[in-house]
Amino acid sequence: MNRARKLLAPSILSCALLAALVLAGTASAEIRVGEATAPVNPAIDPSASITAAKAEYNSDTGTVAFAVTTAAAPSPETKGKPSPLEMGAALANPSSCNNAAVGSTTSFPTFAFQYSYVQPLLVIWRLQESASVEPTFPETVGQATRSVSGTTTTFTATVPRAANLPFSCAVALVHEGVAGVEGRPIEPLVFPLAVAKPPAPPAPAPQPSAVLSIAKSKPLKLTAGKWTKVRIKVANTGSATAATGSLRLKAPKGVLVKPAKQRLPTLAPGGTWTVSAKVQLTAKAKKRSTVSLTAVAGTATAKGSLVLKRQG
Fold it and tell me: Which residue of 48, 85, 181, 189 has the fewest CB atoms within a 10 Å radius of its CB?
C-alpha cells in the first residue's frame, strides 16, 4: 500500500481517537476553543514532543483549526533518512475529556487531521459520523490546509458536514509509524473545548471636561510699602468649556493683595484669561513670601503660587 493510501485508510491513530467518543445530539451554532501545554519530553525526538496545542471549532460553518507546537519543527527527514513520524489532531465528544476516557470509551462523531512528516503536502481530514459508516470522499474525507510558523503546525478545514456537531474535547499527538505497534507509546495531549468568551466591551469614551491651569510666574522682587501690579494667566487645557468661575489670592502675613477674589469668564477649550491684581509688602513681610492662587470653575480647580521677595 502506498503512503497516500495508507493515510487515507483508517489507521490505529484514528481508531484510538474514535474509540473515545459518546453519541450526542447536535448543538447550536457557536465558536468553541481550547488549548493546553506540556513540558518537553527529552526522551523522544524533539519534533515529536508536543509542547502546546490549540483548537477552534466553528459549529456554524464546520470550520476546524488546530495548531500543534512541538519542541522542534517537523521535518521530512531525520538523521538523513525519511522521517517515520506522523501527527494527528482530532475533535471528539468523550464522556470525560482525559487520557483514560479517550482510550476506553466508544462514541461518534469525530473529526481528525492526519499528517505524515515525510509527505508534508498531503494532509487529510476525516469525519466519521458513526461506527457503521466509513468516511468517503469528498463528503467526509478530504485534503486539509497545513501551515508552519516556527515549530507550530496549523491544520485548517471547512467541512459543511461537520457543522453543528457536539465536539467537546480535543486530542493532539505524534507517533512513529503505526501508532502503538512499533514500541512508541502514545501520550496524547488532551484538553476540553468550551464556548469562546465574547470580547470585552470597549471602554467607554472619556467624557469631555474642563481642566484649569495657572501659569507659573517668576519670583517678584518688591520694596516694602509700594503697590505692584501683577498678571496671572489662567487657561482651560481640557476638552469642554469651563463655566464661569473665580480666582482667589490668599496672602500670608505681611502681604496685602487687592482684590483678593476676581471673576473668571467662561473659557472654551484652549482658552486663556489674564487676571490683574496688586500686591504690597508691609514691614512685617518676610524676605520671601508666597501668595496662594486658587482657580475654580464648576468642578474644575487649579492651584498656583506667586513668590514675592523683599528688597532692602
Answer: 181
